[in-house]
Please model this.
Amino acid sequence: MFKTLVVILMSSILINNYVLSRFLGICPFLGVSKKLDQAVGMGIAVILVMLIATAVTWPIQYFLLVPFGIDYMQTIVFILVIAALVQLIETFMKKAIPSLHKGLGVYLPLITTNCAVLGVTINNITDGYNFLESMVSSLGCGLGFLLAMVLFSGLRSRIDDSNIPESFRGFATTLIAASFISLAFFGFAGVVDNLFA
Model:
């Protein structure tokens, strides 16, 4: 069981990284990665939302939707749950950490529509994970999102300090840098398979 959980965690962080391999959650990845503190704050907020959303949606799927034969409502129900959770976290951050709330700006409510959060909750069900495996998968996906945000924030700060030709400045360089990080993460394929070999 431990081996399975480690494989799920490591593959969620490195191989199946939702931002860099599956290309989900690109909006906050590109929008909030200019400053390290904002990138870390967004990453932590996404980890919390993913964990809480999984803890709520998994039982809803198996104890409400499936028994009553309304599992076709999965996407709508999951979106409503995620939206409610994001509103709770936003209210908490506004009172507890106002500087981070202000720094994240419009991107915090965008977690509601962050397809990475919805993708994690649905993929945990689709992959047939039990509750514990779903929680580990969500933690790994959140940590992978945080890792991508931190790496990209560091890269963007280096780009801002570099002498770049005028035609590549701005969003063009940002997208090129994102593609290079994504390509680097494809190099992790096969690492987890050999972890316990």
The chain is about 70% helix and 0% strand. The mean pLDDT is 84.
